[in-house]
Structure formats: structure tokens, C-alpha cells
Write a structure and sequence with these properties.
2 domains; 5 helices; Ubiquitin-like (UB roll); binds FE2/S2 (inorganic) cluster; DNA polymerase, domain 1; alpha+beta; about 160 residues
């Protein structure tokens, strides 16, 4: 079976890029191996753990299940692109630290991106989510360390701040 190369044009963390990719190449491998952005973590590689989460056009997706070729014409943000100019880390990351929502950190990059995406959506659509809504928005993420309460506390706090 042939696996032809396709040219894609996309934005990665604010920078335009053009690359040739195989149709079988998953976005996580493209990001980590070709773009050398190692903050996107490989966990289950089956769409179950959320460690590989990145933003595509603002939506949090599992990059282990997302063909790299589908990013053509799209805007991709990884954890390396999340920080705000002039600040070492993004407010969502600071809020996670403030709540003790980071331990080993393996799940944290994906969770930070999901919280950011959900916060942006709440702001755009004027949604005031309940704690249960916030918890549901993070259902696709597994964390072996925190017990989730601190992560949900951080997400609720961040989303309350950004969605006013
Ligand atoms: S590595 Fe992608 S969901 Fe687990
Ligand atoms: S902080 Fe260790 S897996 Fe979540």
C-alpha cells in the first residue's frame, strides 16, 4: 500500500509553516518528531487519556487520533504556544499551580489546553458553566496523581475569571 505525501500549510503556535506529510502520520508524531515540540505527551495513543491534547482552530482534540494532514489550512496550538507575551506561563497554568493541580505533570499540558479551550468557548458564547459542566468538559482526561478535585477547582476558578 502506498502512503503518498501531501503538502500541508498550517499555523503552529502562531507561525506559518508548510510541510509534506504521509496520510498515515498522526498529529502527535508530527508535532513531537518533526516539529520537535515535546510538551504534547503520548499516553494511551487510543483517545482515552487526553495527554496528547492540542488545540486545532481553538478546539481541544486528541492528537493521537488526528491525522496530521487534516491540519491543512488550520491553526494548531501546543502547550509551547500557550504562554502570553511578557509572561512566563499562561494564566491557566498559573491557576493550576495555585490550586496544586499539577503533580508529576504528565497530564497537565493537555488539561491546561482543554481548560483554555473551554474557557474561550464559555466567554464567546456567554456560558456560565456549573462545576458539573466544568467537570464534564474534562472527562476525556486521565490523571494518576491528583484525584481530580484540585484540577476541577483550578478549572472552575480559571473559567470564572475569564468568562465574566
Ligand atoms: S495519548 Fe491521545 S488520548 Fe491518550
Ligand atoms: S499530575 Fe501526574 S498524571 Fe496528572
Amino acid at each position: 500500500m502506498t502512503d503518498n505525501l501531501t503538502q500541508i500549510s498550517f499555523t503552529i503556535n502562531g507561525k506559518k509553516s508548510v510541510k509534506w506529510v504521509k496520510s498515515s502520520l498522526m498529529l502527535i508524531d508530527f508535532i513531537r518528531d518533526e516539529l520537535k515540540l515535546k510538551g504534547t505527551k503520548p499516553g494511551c495513543l487510543e483517545g482515552e487519556c487526553g495527554a496528547c491534547t492540542v488545540l486545532v482552530n481553538g478546539d481541544a482534540i486528541n492528537s493521537c487520533l488526528y491525522p496530521a494532514v487534516k491540519t491543512d489550512g488550520k491553526d494548531v496550538v501546543t502547550i509551547e504556544g500557550l504562554s502570553v507575551p511578557g509572561q512566563p506561563i499562561h494564566p491557566v497554568q498559573q491557576t493550576m499551580l495555585d490550586h496544586g493541580a499539577v503533580q508529576c505533570g504528565f497530564c497537565s499540558c493537555g488539561i491546561a489546553l482543554s481548560i483554555k479551550s473551554y474557557g474561550d468557548r464559555c466567554k464567546k458564547e456567554g456560558i456560565k458553566p456549573s462545576r458539573q459542566d466544568v467537570k464534564k468538559s474534562l472527562e476525556g482526561h486521565l490523571c494518576r496523581c491528583t484525584g481530580y478535585i484540585k484540577i476541577i477547582d483550578a478549572a472552575v476558578d480559571y473559567i470564572e475569571k475569564v468568562s465574566v
